[in-house]
Amino acid sequence: MVCRMFRLVAEVDKTRRDLLGTRLRAANTAASAELRALRGTPGEREMPLQVWALDQQDGLAGGLAGYTWGTWLHVSTLWVDERHRGAGLGGALLAEAERIAGTERGCQAARLETWDFQAPAFYQKQGYEVVCVIPDYPPGITEYTLTKRLV
């Protein structure tokens, strides 16, 4: 019955994607008092947060890229050059992002994803807790979602 009423189209379409996001945001806001309370506050918008570690020649030794939204820090990427690993640089990058998110942006928690061969143990040493494990994502690799309370 559904197939006779609608034409399903699988294609990349920025205009439709943006409209989809707008409509979903409106529906979610209507359904959630918490999301309604975010409207008009600084926490409503995703704000980029980036912290860089530069060597003496201003080369990139490491960095963290993420964003804050809804009182959460989301760490998207954390990388340290192999030559500088084990010296505390990753922890320093993460701590600085958490400091900015907590003190300057009012974030109360942080979240991130990592794969089993990357750094789940590193994040746990930084106070993060595993809240989700997805085996075979992608096949042969396990993905972890970790969170940490900032206050």
How would you describe what is shown here?
It contains five helices and six strands. The radius of gyration is 19 Å and the shape is globular. The protein starts with a helix and ends with a strand. The chain has a six-stranded mixed sheet with strand order 1-2-3-4-6-5. With 151 residues, the chain is α+β, with helices and mostly antiparallel strands.
How does the SSE layout of this entry go?
Blueprint: H1 2-5, H2 14-31, H3 33-38, E1 47-54, E2 60-69, E3 72-80, H4 89-104, E4 109-115, H5 120-125, E5 129-134, E6 143-149
Parallel strand pairs: 3-4
Antiparallel strand pairs: 1-2, 2-3, 4-6, 5-6
The chain-level mean pLDDT equals: 94
Percent helix, as a range, is 25-40%
Q: Give the overall form.
A: globular
Distance between the termini: 52 Å
Largest sheet: 6 strands, mixed
Short descriptors:
31% strand; 6-stranded mixed β-sheet; 151 residues; alpha+beta; 5 helices
In short:
The chain is α+β, with helices and mostly antiparallel strands and 151 residues long.
